[in-house]
């Protein structure tokens, strides 16, 4: 963003001072928030610190972009929401996939259609996990790390709120499935796995106008099947989806434009005072309510209304 000055980086590891690109470096996030020359902060601390840092930033009169999960408990998430509302500042949760071109185009393609059923998959590639991502207690696990994105994204894509969940978990929560039941009764079946061996973030949606599928990481996976001679808009979308990114870049992290688009949208919101398409703090709380309901559903082996 051309009108933004990168002022300060806070990290407990001095070796990461280079991230500041000439900005000041401090070892405590509190020192960064206290600065008068800071108007907005991006919080990407371990989840256990999210709530305290966000509440302090709102109290200091800063605009806040906070990575998910918003907090470790619903009580803390609601404390953040109360601080945000009291501040009058822009508060955004890092649901960057709202801004991915593939998912935005899918939402446009099915607008006005009746969703019949859907499948959603989000898996992360095999790697050594940071300690906090390995356990639910510290904000990790498949539902809090991956499923929470779809808890936010499914209503955005379909235009329907989620009204119920039915979930199952295994591998100590590193693998999970969720039936996300929408208000219309249609179900999007979600599958989530941490460090599963490959990376996928995909939707396959069946509507009364046809079937659309796209994987954020694989431009060759986009496919549309519609009745011959009908729904030219969907056929054009199929062509457009296939051109979003070269196949050689499909599994490179830098090929995902949604992180930059999401941060750009936050900066625009902070500048204009309007939230735009960003997910506000209330959306972050709602996503946590859905994920916690899914965890409870899995523990009790029964559906849960939300």
Note down, in words, how this protein is organized.
The chain has 306 residues and is of the alpha/beta class. Helix content is 33%, strand content 25%. β4, α3 and β5 form a beta-alpha-beta unit. α4 packs antiparallel against α6. The longest helix is centred in the C-terminal third of the chain and has 20 residues.
Given helix and strand content, the structural type is: alpha/beta
Strand order of the largest sheet: 12-11-10-6-9-8-7-14
The span between the termini is 38 Å
> What is the overall pLDDT average?
86
Computed over alpha carbons, the radius of gyration is 20 Å
Specify the helix fraction band. Answer: 25-40%
CA-based shape: globular
Regions with little confidence, pLDDT below 50 for 5+ residues: 228-254
């Amino acid at each position: 963003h051309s009108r933004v000055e990168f002022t300060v980086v806070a990290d407990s590891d001095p070796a990461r001072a280079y991230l500041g690109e000439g900005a000041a470096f401090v070892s405590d996030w509190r020192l960064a928030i206290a600065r008068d020359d800071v108007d907005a902060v991006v919080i990407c601390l371990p989840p256990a610190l999210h709530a305290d840092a966000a509440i302090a930033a709102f109290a200091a009169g800063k605009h806040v972009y906070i990575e998910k999960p918003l907090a470790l408990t619903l009580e803390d998430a609601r404390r953040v929401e109360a601080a945000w509302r009291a501040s009058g500042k822009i508060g955004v949760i890092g649901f960057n996939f709202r801004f991915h071109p593939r998912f935005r185009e899918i939402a446009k393609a099915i607008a006005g259609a009746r969703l019949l059923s859907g499948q959603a998959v989000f898996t992360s590639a095999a790697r050594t996990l940071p300690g906090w991502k390995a356990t639910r207690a510290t904000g990790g696990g498949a539902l809090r790390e991956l499923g929470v994105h779809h808890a936010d994204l499914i209503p955005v894509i379909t235009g329907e709120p989620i009204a119920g969940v039915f979930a199952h978990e295994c591998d100590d929560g590193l693998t999970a499935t969720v039936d996300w039941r929408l208000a219309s009764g249609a179900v999007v079946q979600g599958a989530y796995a941490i460090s599963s061996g490959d990376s996928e973030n995909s939707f396959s949606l069946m509507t009364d106008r046809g079937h659309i599928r796209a994987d954020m990481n694989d431009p060759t996976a986009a496919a549309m099947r519609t009745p011959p001679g009908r729904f030219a808009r969907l056929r054009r979308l199929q062509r457009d989806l296939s051109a979003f990114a070269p196949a050689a870049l499909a599994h490179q992290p830098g090929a995902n434009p949604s992180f930059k688009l999401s941060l750009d949208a936050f900066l625009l919101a902070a500048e204009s005072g309007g939230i735009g398409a960003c997910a506000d703090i209330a959306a972050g709380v709602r996503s946590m309510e859905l994920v916690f309901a899914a965890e409870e559903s899995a523990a009790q082996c029964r559906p849960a209304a939300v």
